[in-house]
Design brief:
About 35% of the residues lie in helices and about 25% in strands. It is of the alpha/beta class. It has 2 domains: about 180 residues, Rossmann fold; about 220 residues, 3-Layer(aba) Sandwich (Rossmann fold), CATH 3.40.50. Helix 1 packs parallel to helix 3 and helix 1 packs across helix 9.
């Protein structure tokens, strides 16, 4: 596929290099169009070496081949990362005073923008109005996200990670969609979706806790895919190591008790996904003061108490919605892994269970993963790849299940 990567002049311009490399490695023909100010942040040789194509910001270079329109006409996809406030404004108003402007105006390809700017700029009514205009015209925005900004500050406005931008962009176009997960746009339009993500922590004393290695990456990817499929999404995040995506409600929790309370309050959503790694046990008596070697002795013991199974509670109440669980298991043997998944689905009473294998070196953080989605009849979907594309496949399986339910209950209001 022929992909134009536009770069505008923000500090995040250096991250465009990662997106270009990922696209080239995936076999795409990448043409980079920086703005003049982008070239003050990242050098032309870097862009030419990574894209393996000549790079210019000049409308008046290579005029004989009518480059200022040819690039856009021939593109299958245009991604601009970062998209600065200035570039958003120019695009919203159709300005064509540089090669990036003419390229975009001369193209009918899907346009994906990854805004990056400081929070104050992002929140300006002028910027938001430009964003609204672009979105109403069918432009896709990926991010920005909340996180660390250029200085010591942090907040909304950080560019989405290059990999997330590339994955979302490829999913928009044919071919890319089949490799990257297909979560149909609009497949969850009008639905409410609640996703728990991360790992709960159980305090031992004011400074220590019992926790687990979940980063929240998988659950956050599921929430993002649900958002992209048109749902109104609430993410209940337990100690997330990954940024909260834009466009989703976020409820932050720490302990299992807090997670249980948050999920119960949201239990009537059309789809409830329990992707969080929930501590099965909490510390029976949390110490008011810090435990010391003097007070705890040489062979301390911790008395634990069983936590409620939130998924089972959500699944076994009287309901008409869809409840989805996750199971991360360590069985090396495939048949045994599947059997555990089936038993867990039945025991918890969920409609779907997303089953994956984890180990000391498998499954956690920003890694590739492989999952199978089970229902009471067996495997209904399988997916492998990075968590963003796997999440889209999970959302596809959920959307298919909802659609089947609607077909078998035609008189009921769509859920
Ligand atoms: O039993 P196990 O922890 O393997 O089950 C995993 C599934 O159950 C996940 O969906 C997880 O979010 C959920 N769970 C829960 N409450 C617990 C333990 C797990 O909701 N106390």
């Amino acid at each position: 596929m022929r992909v134009v990567v536009g770069i505008s002049g923000g500090i995040a311009a250096y991250k465009a290099a990662l997106a270009i490399r990922e696209l080239v490695q995936a076999g795409h023909d990448v043409h980079v169009v920086p703005t003049a100010s982008a070239l003050r942040f990242i050098g032309r040789p870097t862009l030419e070496a990574l894209s393996r194509n000549p790079v210019t910001d000049e409308v008046f270079d290579d005029v004989a081949s009518v480059r200022h329109v040819a690039l856009g006409q021939q593109a299958d996809l245009i991604i601009v990362l970062p998209a600065t406030a200035n570039t958003l404004a120019k695009l919203a108003h159709g300005l064509a005073d540089d090669l990036l402007g003419t390229t975009i105006l001369a193209s009918r390809a899907p346009l994906v923008l990854a805004p990056a700017m400081h929070t104050e700029m992002w929140e300006q009514p002028a910027v938001q109005a430009n964003v609204a205009t672009l979105v109403s015209r069918g432009v896709t925005l990926v991010g920005p996200v909340a996180g660390q900004l250029t200085g010591a500050d942090s907040g909304m406005g950080r560019m989405a990670e290059p990999h997330e931008v590339v994955s979302a962009a490829l999913a928009l176009v044919d071919g890319g969609a089949s490799q990257q997960g297909t979560a149909a746009r609009g497949a969850l339009a009008g639905r409410t979706v609640v996703v728990s993500a991360g790992g709960t922590r159980e305090p031992i004393d004011p400074v220590r806790f019992l926790g687990n290695r979940s980063s929240g990456a998988m659950g956050v990817a599921v929430a993002t895919a649900a958002r992209d499929a048109g749902a109104a999404v609430t993410l209940v995040g337990a100690n997330l190591d990954v940024p909260v995506p834009t466009g989703v409600e976020h409820v932050s929790v720490e302990t299992t008790a807090q997670l249980a309370q948050a999920m119960q309050a949201l239990a009537d959503a059309d789809v409830v996904v329990m992707a969080a790694a929930v501590a099965d046990y909490r510390v029976d008596e949390v110490s008011a003061g810090k435990r010391t070697k003097e007070s705890w002795g040489e062979t301390p013991t911790l008395q634990l108490a069983l936590n409620p199974d939130i998924l089972a509670q959500l699944a076994q109440r009287e309901r008409t919605n869809l409840v989805v669980g996750f199971a991360a298991e360590t069985e090396a043997d495939d048949a045994a892994l599947l059997e555990r998944g089936r038993a867990k689905l039945a025991r918890k009473g969920a409609d779907l269970l997303v089953l994956n294998r984890v180990g000391h070196t498998e499954g956690f953080g920003d890694v590739r993963t492989a999952v199978r989605v089970l229902d009471a009849s067996g495997i209904v979907a399988e997916s492998r790849g990075d968590k963003v594309s796997v999440a889209r496949d999970i959302i596809d399986a959920i959307a298919a299940r909802l659609a089947a339910h609607d077909r078998s209950n035609p008189t009921e209001e769509p859920r």
